[in-house]
Amino acid sequence: MNPTHEFKGTIGKTYKDSVPWWPDKVAPPAGAPNIVFVVLDDVGYSDIGCYGSEIATPRMDELAAKGARYSNFHVTSMCSPTRACLLTGRNSHTVGVGIIAEWSSGFPGYSGQVSNAAATIPEVLGQHAYGSYAVGKWHLTNIADYGSAGPHDNWPIGKGFSRWYGFHGALTDQWNPELCQDNRPIRLEKPENYHLSTDLVNHAITDVRDHLSSAQQRPFFLYLAFGACHWPHHVPQEYIDRYKGRYDGGWDGIRAERLQKQIRLGVVPPNTTLAQLNPGVQPWTELTTDLKTLFTRLQETYAGFLEHTDSEIGRLVDYLDSVGQLDNTLFVLLSDNGASAEGGPTGAINLRKHMVYEKESPEVGLANLDKIGSEMAYNHYPTGWAQVSNTPLKWYKKGTHGGGVRAPLILHWPGKINDEGAIRHQFHHVIDLAPTVYDILNVQAPQTYKGTPQLQIHGISMAYTLIESAAPTRKQTQIFELLGDRAIWHGGWKAVARHPKDTDFEADEWELYCLDKDYAEINDLAMEQPSKLKEMVELWWVEARKYGVLPLDDRDWERAAARLKMHPVAHYELHGDMARIDRLTSPDITDRSYRIKATFDDARAPGVEGVILAWGSHFGGFVLFIKDGTLSYEYVYSESVTHTLQVGFQPASDKGSIELRFQRQGKNAGAASLYVDGVELGSVAIPRTWPTHGTTAGLNCGLDAGAPVSRSYEAPFSFTGTSLRVFVDLDMEGGAEPGAVFTAAIREQ
């Protein structure tokens, strides 16, 4: 109840001569619908069937056929910035998320978390009686705050959601995800045939069910952000099998097929032609038979992954229908950016290794074709298939050409969309979705929220397009920037500059396109219309200063490394059965000497065993465990290279003391030794080591709770000793500075 001084009743000596009073409950706007946002990850413009794909996506296609589909919708070209735009209605740099959360820096536009001056949709709707629930990927918390102790003000519950079940960053293992619930990391108890997408939809349904059961008079906002179809592409084998042979003709043929279908559907203009193959993408006919075999399997897996996601979306739609809520729900589906080129020209079955510290040869994939899509692979397709996903466009995710920033958008709201099934061609951007919601509800974003003055909404409502499908666009201007790539759209024109990393920004070559006549950005008019280009570039600088884009910065992982150097930590104390520590906040053992010491009680108890420390996964990591009277250390360099050291475990007393000492012996190399009760019992050479933050999964103490590091035991293989404590001490004098080697590895890619 409100404080006594705001009490509007009367208080006598007893209740009999007193008048009670209760504050009015907030009521939802008249006729307010439920709102569901579904966000796909790294799904290209043409990947959904109703946008031209051969991939079976009947449930998304059905939403489009009975709703509104957009051909000219744009996002930012990476995960976090798009999500910040989506949930706030403001440009990403202005709210502090000009780049993904991992690559934040000390500038206002790149703080890696949403500013308190930009209330989110759930925060605004919470003032109008909505219940709000987040499921899946968040990616809007600064990595410094990933730990279980928080602070949690930039976790989903701190940003207006009542519940959250999901994960912080990207590249989540679909078979063995590292999840959080509400404000803490959790330990996943997996049922048989587990898959993350199914798990997320189960929790989405649970949240809606519980809301409907306890708040029948209040609408809900559900934010469901899949890990799909970001790499690793993980999916049940039956879905992969459905595409066997479908891609044998190669990416050139599939691009041509998709374009013809897009023209028939009307999602691109009739005169559209394909952009040339991006640099690094070979014509299919030039590839060897072996490469074709590998590449088709990788694409079959991606296609199966998307079809599986479509099926899970359909399950949510069916549930809403079964409880009588679908007709009263505004359903919004989009992708966060264009398709990813991170697989490189040949793709990989262990992409973390491939991207960060050792290129994977196609022979590795060919020898492991049957593992692709399973928990034994961390696979991603080659860039040729990424360009197929972005048909008919050029470039990819991270770029500001069409391949990076055009995205599918479907709105479904039975009985409230005129001209159902018609394609809307108005230019719009992801910042326009929040004001569309507010417009539909006839509510205003607050000028002050929790005492903080609010930024104005940058987007405009798209509600007019639901009424008149062919109405002229009402948007005037939109700026784009990511990693130094820049673009500006204004009145149908687009100027765009692709920035090569570590080069002079002033040397960037700007291109000019009339998008109303050149959908795929093929006919560069920069030479023909220099005055128009000059006008557009000058406008970009005006908008950049207005929306906090500056300073331009083309660093990626170097930003994370710089952050690590700011507050280096040399000593860590871990406790058995603690909450998982995220890989980005784990001790940085990269290319340095270090010591790990574990102490515990009941060391001489019969059958004492279990994992003492598990760091990473079977794609890269190490584990220290006791089994059958043997102390074992396994260092997993990659999916195919493991170094093992085993010594007898015969402690002198019930107070166990174990040490692992790693001595650096040259760049990215060293030797590990095991000690029991201070006595060295063995050592093993490790000629190549991985960089901590780019390779490993999370860190667990007292069990192996993620993708198992080793197959020598059945996870989680909890430690049976008691009072386990593990101390990690890093050599801060010799070897590399925190993050330095990792940065160097990334720069070499």
Question: What would your notes on this structure say?
Answer:
- It is globular, with a radius of gyration of 27 Å.
- 53% of the residues are buried.
- It contains 17 helices and 29 strands.
- The protein has three domains: 34-467, Alkaline Phosphatase, subunit A, CATH 3.40.720.10; 477-546, Arylsulfatase, C-terminal domain (2-Layer Sandwich); 558-747, Jelly Rolls, CATH 2.60.120.
- It has a ten-stranded mixed β-sheet with strand order 7-6-5-4-8-1-9-10-2-11. Strands 19-29-20-25-26-27 form a six-stranded antiparallel β-sheet, with no helix packed on it.
- By secondary structure, it is of the alpha+beta class.
Compact overview of the structure:
By secondary structure, the protein is α+β, with helices and mostly antiparallel strands. The chain is built from 17 helices and 29 strands.
Helix content: 10-25%
What is the approximate shape? globular
CATH fold naming of the largest domain: Alkaline Phosphatase, subunit A
Termini Cα gap: 59 Å
**Helical stretch count?**
17
What's the CATH first level of the largest domain?
Answer: Alpha Beta
Q: Any idea what the CATH superfamily of the largest domain is called? A: Alkaline Phosphatase, subunit A
How would you describe this structure in keywords?
Jelly Rolls, Arylsulfatase, C-terminal domain, Alkaline Phosphatase, subunit A, ten-stranded mixed β-sheet, 749 residues, alpha+beta, disordered C terminus, 29 strands, single chain, 23% helix, six-stranded antiparallel β-sheet
